[in-house]
Amino acid sequence: SSPTSTTNTLGKKSSPSSATATTTTTTTTTTTTTIGSIKDIHNIFPGDLYPFLRKPLFLIIDSNNSIAFQNMPNLFGQPFVSLLSPIKLPTVFHDYQNKGSLFTLFLTSPIFAFCFVCHLNDLTNEQWNLCQEHINKIIFEITKLFLKSKLVVKKNYLFFFFFDSTIYHFFVDEFLRLFLSRFVFCYAVLRLHRAFKGSGFYPSSQPQLSNDLLENVQIHKMILELSALLNVRQLFLEGPLTTADLISSNQ
User: Fold this and answer.
1) Where are the domains of the chain?
2) Residue 22 and residue 137: Cα distance in Å, rounded?
3) Count of CB atoms within 10 A of residue 181's CB?
4) Omega of the bond leading into 203 within 30 degrees of 0 (cis)
5) Where is this region: Disordered (predicted)?
6) Element (H, E) at 158
7) What's the pTM value of the predicted model, to 2 decimals?
């Protein structure tokens, strides 16, 4: 017997082959949508974290889409700080992405991170100790910058005044204080490095830290001195960023 023809939605007769093709196309589209939905349910969205804002929250987001968490609303008025990774990476470092994150490396081992961006794979013990000592001094200097110069003693207690009251809540914790100081170090190194050009290559935070911290001339000088000691000075800018440089880069 001959094949039975089918009728499409326009009332015209169509052959069995065309009807089969239409069915196949519809099935493929449905499958693609389902796969996309499955991927979405395994992602973390800013809204997933809203319940945790009922209590003080210190958040570190390391993702190539960290910008999605940049303006999280503080729904309950509790202290909230987030450190966000850069969303871009220079091409020269793309091959290393599957081995770990540069942002996490700066927060956990700033010495290794500095050596990595400077392509220093073979250091002598003397160079390593020199690098470690110098970076420790930079981190200590950054920690001091988080505090205002004025200290107040009242009833045998020493009070520190911070740039932001939210930062103060977490800065008194030694563990979190280290993350904050290393975050500033990360920003300063990438800011001076010639391979990292543009705001997308630098980490960000909420609340945003002041330029007194992020663009501090003294910190820049110490980083450039370290690069000179390790013979990688050519990888960095000619000198500390001036006010004119900052205005130009932000335009």
Assistant:
1) 6-41, 46-250
2) 69
3) 23
4) no
5) 1-26
6) strand 157-162
7) 0.77
Q: Which two tokens stand for residue 222?
A: 């110490």
Q: Which residues, at least 6 apart from 165, have a Cβ–Cβ distance to it below 8 Å?
A: 79
Q: What is the pLDDT of residues 154-206, one digit of tens each?
A: 445 555 555 567 888 899 899 999 999 999 999 999 999 999 999 999 999 99
Q: pLDDT, tens digit, for every residue of 61-97? A: 999 899 999 999 999 999 999 999 999 999 999 888 7
- Write out the H or E segment, with its range, that includes residue 60: strand 57-61
Q: Is-contact 207 164, C-beta < 8 A?
A: yes
What CA–CA distance (Å, rounded) separates 251 from 249? 6
Residue 90 has, within 13 A of its CA and on its CB side, a CA count of 15
pLDDT of residue 41: 85
160 DSSP β-pair partners = 151
Q: If you ran DSSP here, which 8-state letter would residue 201 be given?
A: G
What distance in Å separates the CA atoms of residue 188 and residue 195, rounded to the nearest whole number?
13
3-state DSSP: the chain helix, strand, coil percent, rounded to 5?
55, 15, 30
CA distance 203 to 67: 10
